[in-house]
């Protein structure tokens, strides 16, 4: 019998009872509604429907029907995109051949493509050639472009396909990369890449590695590139031509919203003898209509020549076309093939509203206070005066003050403002509703950047600090030496840490009241109201005549949809008679290659706002008001933009930026022609040494607005001379007691976040006593912010070689 082994006593590891956790994702119906955020579920997931993957499998009939519908939709889209190219009279496919290296030839590249299909046509070194590809029953129009930035941009704007030519020996230089950046930012359609001179690479086994290297480089700029074709290989060149003839064009969004035409021929009717009294004549532009229908009522943008009106649109079929007898009779009966004439709805060339309209509206404006009649700086939309001057101008009146307030303390009070309303009989808090800000801000931006524990400093309230003490002004020599030493130390500090980018220094002999007469104070840059009546004496003469758009999105949609219907159908070869063209372009070497039809009102001037993104590769910042050349869709204009901060503010006030640093973005504002829709922008600059343009920034067109206020900020700083708890004597901000009284109502702030206000003036040299919401450091700096509205400058048209 086996021995009995005693079992050891066992206890459970823990006495805790693990309960099932609550894993419900939604506790209440309210949480379900909050998470859905108004979204409506699809029909297949409605309440009571089958939701399992197995139950959602469609039947065989439904799957076939769905595939058939998708196939038909795709076929319709393909037919719509290629319908303009079909038939004997179809439009040619425009292919721009762009060189990226210095040792390649675009003319030789076109000859190689034609030779692959046994086509022998003369190809110019620069220009265009129409090639009939009988094998694929298509016509290809090659644009042979030299290594020129503007010529490349003009060709790619109207091209259906862009063929980049690389070299098998030389790398892409800086000019080639500039062309790539500009074309990509402008908007590009289908692209192909070819290499030239690959058969000269020895040994032959290195050729695949060369092609692989070129493909790796070009996919960095154009990720959709699938392969690099060799022009020395006859089969690969033929495959490229087949792709040009069969590929569906992708198009460019902003270009497809308008009607455009490649100009094949330019004819001046009558020459110089047919010029009118103003030195203009009539020009006939011949080409094939593309995009939307071409209307005679809309203005035409002809290259860099400008905007012109249409006299008539005439049919211009090719001479090789064999027309039937009945078709010839139809054309003759229509009057020499006239397809469309302008009507009473034709757009005029006026870019500003008539002055008669301006005079009727000016009478409705309220009269503003002249600067000479003011008695204090403008803070928000109020004028604050010193009590001595106010008593002279108006009879004395009683004011409600806290109980026990002395005569000296009563001078601190401005009606409607106080630290606390517990002791006041009447207290209005409407002025304080806009102070709170949820986002952190800089103290220079106003009160939202200076609140401490949710309490902002005000100018009212009983004083608990000692009375004014005796103050003696220093001698002029001693004060001048102190000012110079203080400003030298400040300049050294700014070089180390740029905390006051808007700071200015006033000369001791300059009257700040006269120097800063156009500036005003703001309690908050984001929420304070801006009295626009004060700016009317300084606004540009044409400001009230600019185009104003109340609802931009709705208006833009209306006029873009208007261009969808009517006009000469795309694919029709026409001759457009344009009137009012200056004869100076007849002798100019710059020949426009494209004509764009403008949408309604796109010729009128307005306050344009464009986004501006400075390239991170730029060597330095761009200063506001510097001259830039901007390409916006079919236009090129010369501007001197104002830069301001982006974003939506409740009061539509945006801080002016003196510089835009590399990698930063801003809003560029100027007075220029209107552009509907989102159109890409290219910003160029010209060096003084060479007239060659250089791309520095890109952007997008934004809704224009004449009510956007660009506020230029300046900061006056002072030095805390004496500190007694929260009462500080400040110097070097002003240099006479008159300026202190003029700017007394402005709120003060320090770079370390303190806020305060001017209490009283000391002496006659600009010293004053100020009160802050806490003790400040002797190393701190006292500042005050002033704002002035700046106005955008007018733009002028770029005239190409005539401009240079």
From TrEMBL:
What GO cellular component is one of the record's annotations? preribosome, small subunit precursor
Q: Which UniProt keywords apply?
A: Nucleus, Ribosome biogenesis
Superkingdom in the source lineage: Eukaryota
Localization per record: Nucleus, Nucleolus
Report biased composition (Basic residues) as residue ranges. 8-28
* Domain Bms1-type G residue range list: 91-250
Q: Region Disordered: what ranges?
A: 1-40, 433-479
- Record-stated family: Belongs to the TRAFAC class translation factor GTPase superfamily. Bms1-like GTPase family. TSR1 subfamily.
Which GO molecular function annotations are given, in alphabetical order? Answer: GTP binding; GTPase activity; U3 snoRNA binding
**Record keyword Nucleus present:** yes
Q: What is this protein called?
A: DUF663-domain-containing protein
Taxonomy, top ranks, is: Eukaryota, Fungi, Dikarya, Ascomycota, Pezizomycotina
A Gene Ontology BP annotation from the UniProt entry: endonucleolytic cleavage of tricistronic rRNA transcript (SSU-rRNA, 5.8S rRNA, LSU-rRNA)
